[in-house]
Amino acid sequence: MTVEALTGASLQEGTPQVIDKDTYATYQTRGGILSEERYDQASTIRNGILPVIDSSLKPAIHQAQSMASVAGIILLQEEISIYSFFRNQGFSGSESPNNTPQGKIDVWGLGDKQLLAEVLKMTGRIKELEIFIAAFPHIFNP
Question: Of 43, 12, 11, 45, nearest to 30 (Cα)?
């Protein structure tokens, strides 16, 4: 499956890699499946309010870098931060499966590669998303 099929977006000659990445609606047009609350959390991280990197995030940071390396892409620091923050999210009062908006999936419902693909959609790096999906056809083209 191509990124175009997944996201409705295509790469044309001369199109910048990073497109308008500031709205939830844009993320949804790329095929984004996480809730607006999660998108807003990612936006906060993208805008420079990074989670504290402590020992609990290190495995997720390494995991993101490893997946990117296998796929042949380089992640931005903001993507690593967003991925590691989401990967370490657990269940808490307002963040339970019963409170996830209809038709949306929360971070705990995604596998590692699926979550990293969502992060790439959030940051608008469509070319890197396409490369990443192609590297893991067994995940994205079952």
Answer: 11
